[in-house]
Structures are given as structure tokens and as C-alpha cells.
Amino acid sequence: MKSAAGFVIFKRAPPNVLYLLLQTSYGEHHWTPPKGHVDPGETEMVTALRETVEESGLKKDDLKIYNDVKRVLNYKVKGVPKVVTYWLAELVNPKAEVILSDEHQDFKWLNLEEACVYAKYADLQESLKYFDNYICSNKL
Ligand SMILES: Nc1ncnc2c1ncn2[C@@H]1O[C@H](COP(=O)(O)OP(=O)(O)OP(=O)(O)OP(=O)(O)OC[C@H]2O[C@@H](n3cnc4c(N)ncnc43)[C@H](O)[C@@H]2O)[C@@H](O)[C@H]1O
User: Where does the record place the Nudix hydrolase domain (predicted)?
Assistant: First the structure.
């Protein structure tokens, strides 16, 4: 079993809520929120914070993390089960800028509809809709 963790990061651009997706510079050049493999001895939250800094340059202090709001995805990569935990996080530092690592070649801030097109996997689309509904219904 492979494990990974990350954040679905949103920011406000009234009247829109925008989500951060990163495009890999390898493989199929697919788009996902910042996330990565859980290293030995790490909690998933520590992994999510580490990978988000590494992949997007966004730090813990730039974010408001919703510890109780998460989705867990299960899929197979080359036949091996993988579990990915995403927490919801809000970009609260308006001056913070996304800085990519070599692992990614592009990033976009997208509204829900656009993000669901880029995030082509049904379970990731469902997670984005879940988070969006949480943000709207709880008036975050
Ligand atoms: N093809 C490749 N060529 C060169 N280097 C590579 C490589 N793949 C990985 N690497 C290396 O691995 C490192 C990544 O390490 P990490 O950054 O630590 O880990 P990750 O985000 O979980 O990796 P990955 O991109 O593989 O995961 P995902 O599940 O999105 O994606 C894994 C697979 O699952 C698919 N997938 C993603 N989300 C899915 C979902 N929700 N449902 C079904 N399939 C999904 C993707 O299309 C993809 O095929 C990179 O530094 C890179 O060097």
C-alpha cells in the first residue's frame, strides 16, 4: 500500500472560490493538488505540510488548515493500491506566491467547474465538490 497526503488549497477571488492545481512535469502531466508520498515515521499531516512547501512554496503560516475537513482517495497505481488524504486549507496570506519545484511544470487557480475539468479523476472531482459545498454551506 502506498500512502500520500496533501492539501486542497483554496483562495477567495469574489465572487469565486479558486482551487490550486499543479501539473506534473513527468508522466501524463496530470493535475492534482499539492501532495506526495508519506515518508517513514511521518504523520500524514506532516507529509501534507512538507510536500506543500516543496511543491508549491506555500508554508503552514500562509494557510488556514481545516483539520476536521478531509477526503481520502483510494486508487491503484500500476496495480498497487494507493491511499491519498487531502485536507482542506485556505490561503490566508495574500502576498504568498506559488513557487514550483522541478516536479511540476505549471499551476492554476481554478473555480470548481474548471478544476473538475483539469482534475480528470472522478474521486478527485468528487472531493473538490465536497470541499466546495463545505465552504459554501458553512460560509467559510
Ligand atoms: N511517470 C513518471 N516518470 C518519472 N518520474 C515519475 C513518474 N511518476 C512519478 N515519478 C516521480 O515520483 C515523484 C513523485 O513523488 P511524490 O511527489 O512524493 O508523490 P505523488 O505526488 O504521490 O506522486 P505521483 O505524481 O506519482 O502520484 P499520483 O498518485 O498523482 O499519480 C500516479 C499515477 O496515478 C494516476 N492518478 C492520480 N490521481 C488519480 C486518481 N484520483 N485516480 C486514479 N488514478 C490517479 C496518475 O495519472 C498517475 O498515472 C516525482 O518526483 C517523480 O520524480
Answer: 1-132
Alpha carbon distance 133, 127 (integer Å): 10
- Rounded Cα–Cα distance for residues 1 and 61 (Å): 31
Query: Smallest Cα–Cα separation from 94: which of 7, 1, 18, 22?
Result: 18
The rounded distance, in Å, linking the Cα atoms of 99 and 122 is 27
Q: Which residues lie across from 110 on neighbouring strands?
A: 19
**Interface confidence (ipTM) of the complex:** 0.93
Q: Which of 33, 39, 30 lies closest to 3, judged by CA?
A: 39
Which residue's C-alpha comes closest to atom 8 of ligand 1?
27
Q: Along the chain (140 residues), what's the average pLDDT of each consecutive run of 10 residues?
A: 98 96 98 98 98 98 98 98 98 98 98 98 98 89
pTM for the full predicted model: 0.96
Residue with cell 483562495: 11
